[in-house]
Amino acid sequence: MLKGALITGITGQDGAYLAQLLLKKGYKVYGLMPRRSSSMTWRLEYLGIINKVEIIEGDVTDLSSLIRAIKKATPAEVYNLAAQSFVGTSWEQPVLTAQITGLGVLNILEAIRLTDPSIRFYQASTSEMFGLIQEQKQSEKTPFYPRSPYAVAKLYGHWITVNYRESFKIFACSGILFNHESPIRGIEFVTRKVTDAVARIKLGLQKELRLGNIDAKRDWGFAGDYVEAMWMMLQQEAPDDYVIATGRTTTVREMCDIAFKHVGLFYEDHVVVDPKFYRPAEVDVLLGTPDKAKERLGWEARTTLEELIQMMVDADMERVRAEIKNL
Ligand code: NAP
Ligand code: G4F
């Protein structure tokens, strides 16, 4: 019988790449999907795996649906990638963010505890938990200082994962992942907002790009590399927490420069700073130290920021060209 994995958030960026990876490794892949008024499966279609995964209806805020999903899939591994994951929205919908991104983790851990505590569990934690950074380079030992309702909810998810590992001996790992992007990144996040705009400007559909704080710095990697680390964590002898990052930090401004130059444009001619996109509390800089992941998991980022942004611009150029053709 094939080894089973259940992925919450399978329709998101990481869920789609992780499903693709696990299928390649021979897993039977199940994905939890909340009911939506329209289909959200475009990423699974983009990667050509929509017919290879089994979707189970459910929601991380509904414990009974999680218990049913686990009973149906009988997975060896559960990856919790579901979240209200956009930091900006977490100030507009803080309660919902806490329910999904925070308490959702507890619901899954409870479902595992009540059904099969031998299931291995991965929690999608985040560098946003470091927020107002307490050390220049953030590692597993750096104290947290969350700066948004999203980051506070994620901190709860992180600690409840650690607590269930220590309390009930559940094989639970928390991956503290720094920003990771791809051609299937949500359009609301800054990298994809930029690469989509670059394509539209180059092809004559748009003239300017309005952004918020372009001096913010992030440690950006490729999502395809990062989902490998998630799987690796669950294959170890003992559960643990790991920082996953590239070890390089770059401003939004420099990222724009890479994206615009790739198609022969200059960001200075098109980017307009608009305070509308400033956040009530900003995370100015993030820079991770992936040393533990390299040493224990043998993981390191393979894709450079230049390769990543160019890959995203190329994919958006292709999309926008197709859009124009269909006009
Ligand atoms: P994403 O694209 O926003 O995907 C989030 C997924 O969660 C979507 O499939 C979404 O479904 C689903 N979801 C939302 N509410 C749900 C609910 N109540 N029940 C079940 N599923 C629900 O995020 P991502 O970039 O793939 O990130 C994956 C995870 O890693 C998230 O937990 C995120 O917070 C965390 N993370 C991401 C990064 C990053 O840089 N990408 C870094 C660190 C941590 P719908 O689309 O239908 O709403
Ligand atoms: O792309 P962002 O929205 O990502 P952010 O806030 O760092 O969060 C992402 O990464 C986290 C990991 O650290 C994840 F946990 C989280 O789920 C998500 O995937 O913004 C990046 C930076 C911020 O400093 C923001 O203020 O870009 C700045 N920025 C400047 N102008 C902008 C914009 N961000 C967005 N989304 N839109 C702008 O116009």
From TrEMBL:
Its EC number is 4.2.1.47. It comes from Desulforamulus ruminis (strain ATCC 23193 / DSM 2154 / NCIMB 8452 / DL). The keyword NADP applies. Belongs to the NAD(P)-dependent epimerase/dehydratase family. GDP-mannose 4,6-dehydratase subfamily. Signal peptide: none annotated. It is an enzyme of class 4 (lyase). Pfam families: GDP_Man_Dehyd (PF16363). Its cofactor is NADP(+). It catalyses: GDP-alpha-D-mannose = GDP-4-dehydro-alpha-D-rhamnose + H2O. Keywords: Lyase, NADP. One of its GO terms (molecular function) is NADP+ binding. Catalyzes the conversion of GDP-D-mannose to GDP-4-dehydro-6-deoxy-D-mannose. This is GDP-mannose 4,6-dehydratase. One of its GO terms (biological process) is 'de novo' GDP-L-fucose biosynthetic process. Residues 6-312 form the NAD(P)-binding domain.
